[in-house]
Amino acid sequence: MIQETEAAKSTATVKGIGLENAFPKLRFNRPIHLTHVGDDRIFVAEQNGVIHVFQNDAETSTTEVFLDISDRISRVGNEEGLIGLAFHPDFKNNGQFFVHYSSSVKDMHGIVARYRVKEDDPSVGDPNSEEVIIEQEQPFRNHNGGALAFGPTDGYLYISFGDGGKANDPLGSGQDLSTLLGAILRIDVDHKDPGLEYAIPKDNHFASVEGARGEIFACGLRNVWRFSIDRKTGELWAGDVGQDRFDEIDLVRNGGNYGWNRWEADASFRKQVEMATEKHDQPIASYGRQWGLSVTGGNVYRGKKFPELDGVYFYGDYLSGNLWQIRKDENGDYKNTLVRRTGQSIAAFGEDTDGEVYLLSFDGKIYRVQPTDEPENFLEGWPKKLSETEIFADLKKRKMSDAYTPYEVNAPFWSDSAEKTRFFRLPEGEKIGYRSEGSWAVPVGTEIIKNFRHAAGNRMLETRVIKRIETGWEAATYIWDKRGKDAELRPEGLQLELWMPVKGAKEWRPTTWHGPSSSECASCHVDSAGYVLGLNTAQLNNADGPKNQIMEFVKQELLSGVPEDFDASAAARHCDPHDKTCDLEQRARVYLDVNCAMCHRPNGPGNASIDLRFATDLDATKMINEKPAQGDLGIAGARIVKPGDAASSLLLQRIDTISNGRMPNIGSNVIDENAVELLREWIELMDASSAE
Question: Are 35 and 370 in contact (CB under 8 A)?
Fold first, then answer.
């Protein structure tokens, strides 16, 4: 296994890897697959059940709907939907294609089905032509897997199914050869075995294993989110999403066992689990949580435009937006390298007829992967010490440079009781652009600074910097030394041991302060949330009259676009969630907006299909009386929010724990007890008349 912890360095003639918006006039809704049928068309599948087709031309401005089966798609769970598409190798003659989707007709079932084009119009798929090939019960609403691909040499259909969902593989699917879950399957869709809608290839390794499902090509997989088959070598590359520590890339072989849940990557996970095979096939590459939280498998480049990339496998991380490449060196060894922080929610990759590789993001755009003359700096140009920057005029006295403008937010993000100060610096002559809703428009070159101080111990902990660059944002964490003399740049983050006072007792307890890596910063500062989370009207509209913070920025010529008749009392304004003079529901909704909605929103990276933005009507948040899709923490009758019953409300329980299921799942090791009290009171006082 390779664990790469360094950024890219120049390789061969390639200085760096970049992304180009391949179709700037097109925008998609949660695109999850891109493919072709051997001609000059591109097909893009959306998770809601619509498949689009269009010409492979940068000037293309419209698409045609090739197939719409949204009426039979379940999107209750955020990982559910249309999750796989593959065209038959002989599509030009037989018009067959295959989809993998979560069924709304037969709830909690994954469907693999054959479709055909219309007889009178072969350019359009026929939604009435469905033939169900596989119907697999899904015990939970996550870990659906879903990818489909035909082998370029054998013509068989490969299918991924996750382990069925929830944490820890509770059903033991990964090492259970009697289920299709936790595996990649290989089937022959051109023939049928008795009792099946397909045939099982006789050379499938597990077809000859007693008690095993013969369809299984490889087992021991947790949740393969995207696999692809190299058109030149026939090698199957898969990205398998881990749980607690590692995500992995596997080169999948016939009969392989990739270890879950005895192993997570090559780290022991549960020693008591008995492996279904003698051999554990270790991943070809993996990365830890400081680099990302959800791997997205990619494609091997076999294009014509950039021969220097031939044979390079590209993959990414959905949450951090990191983009990696894996190359085989002259010794036959694989080298895994982080090549770019994209700032995108990387949902999938794909390739066109010519083998060019594309990246699909939930910002709705399709990006082409290509070399660039400008290498990604990965903070290499940043000063290694805070004292070497221009941020502080006097580091010893903690006096900020006059170039940085202080600001305060109405509702601070929970940071394990740390006290914070916030500043921004604009490029000379530039202004921030006001918006009444959502994040303000921040010009390239802007720096946002946040200092963290441990209030109980009066110790400086870290200074975080995010900087607006042409392609998005770059984040840096400077960790202060124990004496508070200076801070060191830590791109990989750092854990610090602290002591916290115990509420209601005259004692202290040890805890860990988690200084986030640059990749972890990118997991919250996402495109769908506007990257900068505090520069918006609701957070900065702090007073009526001349002392209003927004109007101060206008006077200082730092902010443009504010209406001349701006009325602070009528504009959006967050209350302090812990100010008990404010409305209880408003306080609770503000807390969720500030602490949770950067992920839990439309097209956000959160797994649960809930919308916790303050502006969303409560009945449209999809949390009231909704069954949880990501596990119930062992609570009978659990709901995301169950009015009148805080103990059965998972939203509260996930905030009130530091064990598995904790939210937020990164960057916090201390429960916000005031928030727990607030949310418990809010839920208990809800009208329970509609509760089940």
Answer: no
Residue 549's H or E segment, with its range, is helix 549-555
Mean of pLDDT over the chain: 91
CB atoms under 10 Å from CB of 143, counted, come to 29
- In residues, how long is the chain? 692
- The sheet with strand 109-118 has its strands ordered as 82-87, 96-102, 109-118, 121-137
Tell me: the pLDDT tens digits for 88-146? 999 999 999 999 999 999 999 999 999 999 999 999 999 999 999 999 999 998 999 99
Cα–Cα distance list, 677 to 503, 576, 578 (Å): 13, 15, 10
Task: Give the span between the Cα atoms of 202 and 254, in whole angstroms.
Answer: 12
Please tell me the predicted confidence (pLDDT) of residue 689.
Answer: 59
Lookup: tokens for 63: 């698409």
Q: What per-residue confidence (pLDDT) applies to 294?
A: 94
pLDDT of residue 381: 79
For residues 179 and 108, give the distance between their C-alpha atoms in angstroms, rounded to a whole number.
Answer: 16
DSSP sequence for 404-456? SEEE--SSPPP-TT-EEEEEEEPPTT--EEP-SSSBPB--TT-EEEEEEEETT
Alpha carbon 625 to its chain's center: 25
Tokens found for residue 105: 């007709």
Count, in order, helices (H) and strands (E) of the chain.
7, 39
* Residue 605 near residue 345 (C-beta atoms within 8 A): yes
Q: How far is Cα 336 from Cα 4, in angstroms, rounded to an integer?
A: 6
| Burial classification of residue 300, based on how many CB atoms lie within 10 Å of its CB (0-12 exposed, 13-18 middle, 19 or more buried) | buried
| pLDDT value of residue 495 | 84
Across the strands, what pairs with 372?
16
Select from 321, 337, 340 the least CA-distant residue to 329. Answer: 337
Please say if the pLDDT value at position 7 is more than 60.
no
Average pLDDT rounded to a whole number, residues 172-198: 98
- Phi and psi dihedrals of 181, rounded to 5? -75, 150
CA nearest neighbour of 406 among 423, 392, 421: 423
DSSP string, 231-295: TTT--EEEEE--SSSEEEEEEE-TTEE--TTTEETTEES-TTPPPSSS-----SEEEETTT-SSE
The pTM of the full predicted model, rounded to 2 decimals, is 0.86
Q: Are 58 and 24 in contact (CB under 8 A)?
A: yes
Asked if residue 557 has pLDDT above 50, the reply is yes
Q: Which of 434, 430, 435, 436 is nearest to 557 (CA)?
A: 430
Decide if 142 contacts 294 (C-beta within 8 A).
no
Cα separation, 366 vs 187, whole angstroms:
31
pLDDT tens figures, 381-427: 789 999 999 999 999 999 999 999 999 999 999 998 899 999 999 99
CA nearest 325: which of 237, 196, 254?
237
451 φ/ψ angles, rounded to the nearest 5 degrees: -100, 140
CB-based burial of residue 306 (10 Å sphere; 0-12 exposed, 13-18 middle, 19+ buried)?
A: middle
Distant-in-sequence contacts of 237-240, Cβ < 8 A, 24+ apart = 237/297, 237/298, 237/299, 237/300, 237/313, 237/315, 238/160, 238/184, 238/297, 239/295, 239/296, 239/297, 239/298, 239/315, 240/283, 240/295, 240/297
Q: Can you give 566-580 as a three-state secondary structure string?
A: CCCCCCCCCCCCCCC
The pLDDT of residue 477 is 93
